[in-house]
Fold this sequence. Notes:
The protein has helices at about 5-35, 65-85, 130-140, 165-190, and strands at about 35-45, 50-60, 90-95, 100, 115-125, 150, 160, 195-205, 210, 220-234.
Amino acid sequence: MKNWRIEAIILAVGMIVLGIFVKSGITSFAERDRSVNVKGLAEEEVPADKVTWPLVYKSLGNDLNALYDEIKRSNQTIVQFLKEKGIAETEISVNAPEIIDLKAERYSNQENVPYRYNVTSVITVTSNKVDLIRDLVTEQGELLKRGIAVTGGDYRYNIQYEYTGLNTIKPKMIEEATKNAREAAEKFAKDSDSKLGKIRHAYQGQFSITDRDANTPYIKKVRVVTTIDYSLED
């Protein structure tokens, strides 16, 4: 009868060795898979460096030719006012007037309409002289003395402030966001009795530029969030 004792011993030893290798492989794989995902935020407040200011006024009348002459004079007056205050001609755009024939309106009460034509005229200033424009907005009442009432309240013609220097501050903000992400990762590694390893993946989020608040649209808040995966080591 064949003696199976030696074969059994060899098989047992082989199973033990195999188990060691399998355990070692699983442990190594698990260690390679250990990581932490963190986000880093960077924010900065910057002054707007571009402004678009629409000056809007209305004209009413029944004679289009007379209205045309009136609008032409008013446009010249506004342009002259702006130039006197330091705005260059290249920064001023005179838009075509928007004419509404009130008697042609489908739902208007024609019997109670004193004027047939309602004309909206817009002169737009686009400039990087943000502080100067802000001062002029408070002084636009001076145009009343020259016979022009600048109107407001139309959402289509709100003054707009922009920040165009993003490329200038982008590298610094990415560096700050990355630093903040690393600090968060180091804290996590310390709390989990691990060491922080190399960056496995990094994702730069989109930059956003918003008004700091509703009362100061000429001050912008720039924001970016980066997402980084770090490996963890024992």
